Structures are given as structure tokens and as C-alpha cells.
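Repro:
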Amino acid sequence: MVIVNYLIYDVVCKSIQHIMSKKRYHPLSIFFHWLVFLLVVAALGVIELKGQFVKGSEPRELCKTIHSLLGQLIFIAMVLRLGIRMIYGVPKRSGTSLLFSHLATAMNWLLYCLLLTLPIMGLIFLQAGGKEVQFFNWTLPQVLSPDPSIKKVFKELHEWLGNALYFLIGIHALVALWHHYILKTDTLLRMLNKYDPESK
């Protein structure tokens, strides 16, 4: 019991320290950042793999099912990540002008919106196509009646925004590397949890 109380006290103290200092990302923010990254890579990878199989084949349908599940996990992880961001905040950017800081913030929020919107669009076009959407063994409530016109619109939007996601992730990664290797800032180190504010 004493050990449990100590661990709780330690977590609370560290959380307060993160909130007060804002010099580094909270460990939960770092965890969910990389979790979402891995889920997105897996979701994009499996949907690319889908194209290697014949339409209607079992492997192709399995890829679509896995892609749908990964999308739902991304949505849940993003909601949790945004909640953590609201509670603990984010450190102030260093080594960039005010303009680039605003652009980086806009880029982040655009990514957040896409990662929240794409799973919802996927749910809509699947249900509009008359398909059940499952989360593991649980079938999600049917919120739409089958409608081919709605399916067509949302499927095209989902695919178009999915392609845009490739572009935005690429820019996000290049900017992080630019900060690390060219500007020599601590941006990437903070998200890798290797930043030591005491050394500054």
C-alpha cells in the first residue's frame, strides 16, 4: 500500500512539474504520438497491400477489415492524445520565428483533424454501402441506412484525404529533421524523450 501511494505521489508530482515548466512533453503525450504514428503506418501499409489482391478475394477483404479496425484505434488514440494535450499542454517551440511557429501549430491541428475525420468518413461510407462495421467482436450501431450516393461521396473523400495524409506526414517528418539537423533545435529530442531541460 505504501509503494502504491508512493507511485501515485510520484506520478502526480511529475505531472504537476510538467504542467508548470512546459519545457518538455508529458510522457503520455510522447507515448500517444508514437502510438498514433505506428497505427497510421500500419493502416496505410495494409490499404496499399489490399491493392495487390483480386477484388472480392479473402485476403483483400481481410486487409479492408484490418484497415477499418486500425482506423478506429487511431480515432480512440487521437481523442486520448488531445485530452492529454489539454491537460498537460505542450512545450513552447524554440529556435523558430513566430511565423513558423504558427505554421507548425496549424500543420499539427490539420493533422489532428484529418486523423479524427478519416475514421468517421470510413464508418459513414461503409455503413452507407450496407456493410456492418465491427470493433473487434462488437458490431457498431448502424447510424446510416444504405445509400449508394452517400457511399460514393464519402468513399472518394476518404481516399482523397487519405492521399493528402501521406503528403502532410511527409512534410511533418521533414520539418522535424530540418529542426534537428539544420536548425539544431531540441524539437525532435523532446518527442523522443531525450531532452534534458537542465542542460540548457
